[in-house]
From TrEMBL:
Superkingdom in the source lineage: Bacteria
Native species: Pseudidiomarina piscicola
Domain annotation Protein YjdM N-terminal: ranges: 3-32
Protein name: Alkylphosphonate utilization operon protein PhnA
Residue ranges constituting the Protein YjdM C-terminal domain according to the UniProt record: 45-112
Protein family according to the UniProt entry: Belongs to the YjdM family.
Length: 112
């Protein structure tokens, strides 16, 4: 019996072949045994394509209405010490002076 590799996502030893791909029954991850293992970490890029890192300072490029409030984050507002996250559809956790904690999308900011 041939030895199949463990799942690259959850390290489960119970992977099985399904045609030309391998499948993990525990996390449902599918991968090709011929492809090199890809780095699963996501790279975050601003509206201009610059790579963002935790702790960067960014500038808002569009007026953004704050949901559930009458406040607006104006164009040109600088946001310091951002934290990048893969949770939900917003990529940036931050605190904006005068508004408080917020979540932003990378498509509405540029690296300062």
């Amino acid at each position: 019996m041939s030895q199949l590799p463990a799942c690259p996502k959850c390290e489960s030893p119970y992977a099985y072949a399904d045609g030309a791909i391998l499948v993990c029954p525990e996390c449902a991850h599918e991968w090709s045994p011929n492809e090199p293992a890809a780095d699963e970490s996501k790279t975050f890029r601003d509206a201009n394509g610059n790579e963002l890192q935790d702790g960067d300072t960014v500038t808002v490029i569009k007026d953004l209405k704050v949901k559930g409030s009458s406040l607006v984050v104006k164009v040109g507002t600088k946001v310091k010490s951002i934290r990048l996250t893969e949770e939900g559809d917003h990529d940036i956790d931050c605190k904006i002076d005068g508004i408080g904690p917020m979540k932003l999308k990378t498509e509405f900011v540029k690296k300062a």
